[in-house]
Amino acid sequence: MAIPSFGKNAKQLIIDASSSNLKVAEGSYNEKTGLIMLEKVGVVPLDSDTINDGAISDSSGIVLALKHALARLDIQTKTTILTIEGAYMHTRDLELPAAKPEQLKDMVKYEILGQGQTKDMIVDYITCGKTMDEESKTEKIKVRATAIPTEVANDYRELLKGAELTPYALDVNPNGIRKLFSSGMINGSTNVSNSTLLLIELSGRTTTVTVLDKGFPVLSRRLQFGHHNIRQVAESVKKVQGGGDRQSSLARRLNITKSDADSGVPVEDIDVWHESVAEEPSLQSAVNAYFKSLTDAVSRTAQFSISKYHIDSISTCFLYGSGAGYKKIDKELSRQLGTQVEVLNTLSTVVGPKNFIISQFVNCCGAMIRED
């Protein structure tokens, strides 16, 4: 979505539409200091499958929920940046001959789409260094290219217009992660610039594992499993035990009103430590199945990256996304992986409102950084 710039340090509305619940954030990015200043944030709960793997299924339902949430949060900003991710997105790392920008653009489009591509796609790319071709001894440009269907972009543009917002830019989550974690300190102790880390986004229906080496994401894998089954089982257990509905402190801190919140058990009320679930067989089964998929995915991704890219061993895994709120999830994953695991609580380049939880708004923060 290419729309003329509205100036540096201007207030922006960011919407992360990559999962079943929208995340919204209002703030600004200071290019000189590199700081992201968030003033208002909130989660917009949606009905199941309203957004299905990053694609819109019920536009009118999203518009109504979004308008209500923005009014409740008193967000007046109309200029909007959207960040998305889904199975429809194609990303490739390329090494291409040095060329003028227009020629390079044509080469990228050809490489990522090929000759037989009939679907209308939007292609964009970044250059991320240079390398020397061993055979020809000529310099090549390292490129990371991403393509998404034009139809998806148009659907989101129309959705924003239906919500009386002004589309400014369309971003994708992996690109936001690249921008956000290029520098800074995580949780006050881990320097991104000189560490090899794993960033793990725990969503309800997907899991994304990113290998971050010295501030650059060398690999990102989005896997088709999530933690939603744990909540479903926990809700069933609560009903059997006769537990009452209540709003969690997490819901309050994320600016979810009780009328907006879904009826499921809040993740912060679910303890996934192996000793805690041992007394409830159905919950134990769901938790064990999830951790098996998670540990397998993390181990395979780490091993592949170390072998292919010749990077250092992973020092720490950082968790973010909705699933990072489970009790002791960092402790349990650390036990099973045999490595240090932390919930991503703070990033030195991001300043938020009181009681701000960055783990839910990582994608919003990344999209706020503009490199136009």
Q: How many angstroms does the end-to-end distance come to?
A: 12 Å
Number of helices: 10
Q: Strands of the biggest beta sheet: in what spatial order?
A: 10-6-1-2-3-18
Radius of gyration equals: 21 Å
**Average pLDDT, to the nearest integer?**
90
Class derived from helix and strand content: alpha/beta
Share in helix: 25-40%
Oligomeric status: single chain
Number of strands: 18
- The SSE order reads EEEEEHEEHEEHEHEEEEEHHHHEHEEH
- Low-pLDDT regions: 1-7, 257-262
Residue fraction in strands = 25-35%
Largest sheet: 6 strands, mixed
Any idea what the shape is? Answer: globular
In short:
About 30% of the residues lie in helices and about 30% in strands.
Please characterize this protein's 3D structure.
The radius of gyration is 21 Å and the shape is globular. Residues 1-7 and 257-262 have low confidence and may be disordered. The chain contains ten helices and 18 strands. Helix 1 (59-72) packs across helix 3 and helix 5 (228-241) packs antiparallel against helix 8. The two termini are 12 Å apart. The longest helix is centred in the last third of the chain and has 29 residues, at 281-309. It is of the alpha/beta class and 372 residues long. Strand 2 (22-30) and strand 3 form a beta hairpin.
Map the helices and strands.
Layout: E1 12-16, E2 22-30, E3 35-44, E4 51-52, E5 55-56, H1 59-72, E6 79-84, E7 90-97, H2 101-113, E8 121-132, E9 139-149, H3 150-162, E10 166-172, H4 173-180, E11 185-186, E12 190-191, E13 196-202, E14 207-213, E15 216-223, H5 228-241, H6 249-253, H7 274-277, H8 281-309, E16 316-320, H9 329-337, E17 340-343, E18 350-351, H10 362-368
Parallel strand pairs: 1-6, 3-18, 6-10, 13-16, 16-17
Antiparallel strand pairs: 1-2, 2-3, 4-5, 7-9, 8-9, 11-12, 13-14, 14-15
